[in-house]
Amino acid sequence: MWYPARMGPGGNVRIDVERSIMQSADEAAAAIRALLSERKIYALNLISSPGSGKTTLIEALLSRFEGKGGIAVVEGDIETEIDAERIRKHGVQVRQINTRSSCHIQPSRLLSVLREMDLSATRLLLVENVGNLVCPAEVPLGEDARVVLLSVTEGDEKPLKYPLVFKTSGLLVITKTDLLPYVTFDVDRVRRAARAANPAVEIFEVSATTGAGMSALLDRIEALRATKNG
Amino acid sequence: MHELGVASEILDVALAEAGRHAAKKVTSIRLRVGVLRAIEPENLSFLFEHLARGTPAEGALLEIEEEPVRVECEACGVSEAPSFTVECPRCKGTGVLLTGGDSLSILSLDVDA
User: Fold this and answer.
1) Residue of A nearest to B101 (CA)
2) A59, A175, B43, B64 - which has most CB atoms within 10 Å?
3) For the complex shown, is ipTM > 0.85?
4) Residue A93 sits in a domain of what CATH number?
């Protein structure tokens, strides 16, 4: 494509570009979306601060649907295979992406990992992004939905401080609710801010320790998955 | 440090465009960045300067145009806010819908032909 050029001040030439800075990432994300659509795989991109419960949620899903098969997991971390090893114990297909200098999973990286995996029986793909609320929010991975997790120990101002991730996530999971008696965390404040960022957000309150709220969340994820592949 | 990936992408686009127009040097790059992107302009410029060393975009200036959030208030209509908000900046009402504020685009380049 040829863009129009015109003379600017000082005899320089101005080139009109008007393109997204994320274009190459967006192209890789589109390729992932096509791959998932062709194979009828429902994909969730899990995003949160470190230690909010992403891996625990994945383990809960694996325990719930154990034996049913059909779940594949991609773990993203700056370093180590620790999370992948934790997931591998559940006997599912898992790949670890070590992002090194990058604070999020790059779609091009995810695409090449997915191409190496055997996804013939996969119905649900869980991608655990690198733990932080900033960069993963900016980079779509071709997922069907984003899940943002927020633990009650992190504070209730997070949707105000990191609005983009809350704006772009279809599900908000408030985790570690068994600790609410010990921390200052206004659940309604989080709900209000999350709804302002995304009026369609579905909000869940869970505790993996007591099990409270978990089955409603797991049911919902299962129902979402079924919308794509029955 | 999430500005590093953004800076690297800007450089790639600038060099590709400059090459396509047979430009010798990129002197400035105009960007539109939404306030929800959490991009620190100084950090972005600092990282870009490093990455651009030894390329035709060395020394190019990043001109950043901030895109505000558009606030649609049930009570008083459309206004703009300089950052994420849960209330209308005018009437303080909480029945608001936010749009925009998430741009991340290269608008144009100035080059020496």
Assistant:
1) A164
2) A175
3) no
4) 3.40.50.300
